[in-house]
């Protein structure tokens, strides 16, 4: 389905297409390659296409990038939600794929205990939203560091793949990244909130990049070899709604 969004001007035409469930703003112009972008704050999808490229080719291009598009959109959405978080009783707190109900009580010092489906946060009476959020992020960072320190060597041993180190960062649109120049893996702090299998998948994904720079057939073959169900795990990770 196409909705006309504008008339051609100096060799440029624009329209809006529904590609699957995605509303895509398509601009045709005298260029050589297809370009895709997802723009804040709403995560609108934009494609710049050569004048000669068919609608079918654009559809296939967008569908092939659907997972990446959803990840970018979720990053914008979660950042918006993060801005509204108060870290008070009744809000949700995610850890290891479990959604806990936050219960905040006053105390002398910060503390967090997970009991059943409750996350009992003790915070000083004068604590602010910023302080509570920062403390919880540091708690998640410590927990994730401990998990990575355990799992990364085990995955390296099983696969024979190695990195030169790893770091944790709070990233809005990437679960992980491999820095080829230094051989260091970057892992998203938000992985602390995801299922343990998701952390294993991202670690493996980035370790494979230590020997394969792209996502071609060799990359896929190595993922298949070391984690046969990686597609299911990846899809589960990309479907998760995780509050910052």
TrEMBL record:
Annotated ranges, domain YgjP-like metallopeptidase: 35-239
A Pfam family recorded for this sequence: YgjP-like
Protein's UniProt name: M48 family metallopeptidase
Species of provenance: Oxalobacter aliiformigenes
């Amino acid at each position: 389905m196409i909705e006309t969004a504008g008339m051609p001007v100096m060799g440029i035409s624009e329209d809006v297409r529904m590609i699957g469930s995605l509303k895509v703003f398509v601009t045709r112009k005298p260029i050589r390659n297809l370009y895709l972008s997802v723009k804040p704050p709403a995560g609108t999808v934009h494609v710049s296409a050569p004048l000669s490229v068919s609608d079918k080719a654009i559809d296939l291009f967008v569908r092939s990038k659907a997972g990446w598009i959803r990840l970018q959109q979720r990053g914008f959405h979660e950042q918006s939600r993060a801005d509204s978080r108060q870290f008070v009783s009744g809000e949700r707190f995610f850890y290891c794929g479990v959604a806990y109900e936050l219960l905040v009580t006053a105390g002398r010092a910060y503390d967090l205990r997970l009991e059943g489906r409750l996350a009992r946060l003790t915070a000083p009476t004068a604590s602010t939203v910023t302080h509570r959020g920062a403390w919880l992020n540091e708690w998640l960072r410590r927990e994730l560091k401990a998990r990575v320190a355990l799992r990364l060597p085990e995955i390296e041993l099983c696969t024979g793949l190695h990195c030169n180190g790893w770091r944790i960062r709070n990233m809005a649109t990437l679960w992980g990244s491999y820095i080829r120049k230094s051989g260091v893996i970057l892992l998203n702090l938000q992985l602390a909130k995801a299922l343990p299998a998701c952390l294993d998948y991202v670690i493996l994904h980035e370790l494979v990049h230590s020997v394969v720079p792209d996502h071609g057939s060799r990359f896929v073959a190595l993922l298949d070899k070391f984690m046969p169900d990686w597609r299911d795990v990846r899809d589960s990770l990309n479907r998760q709604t995780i509050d910052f």
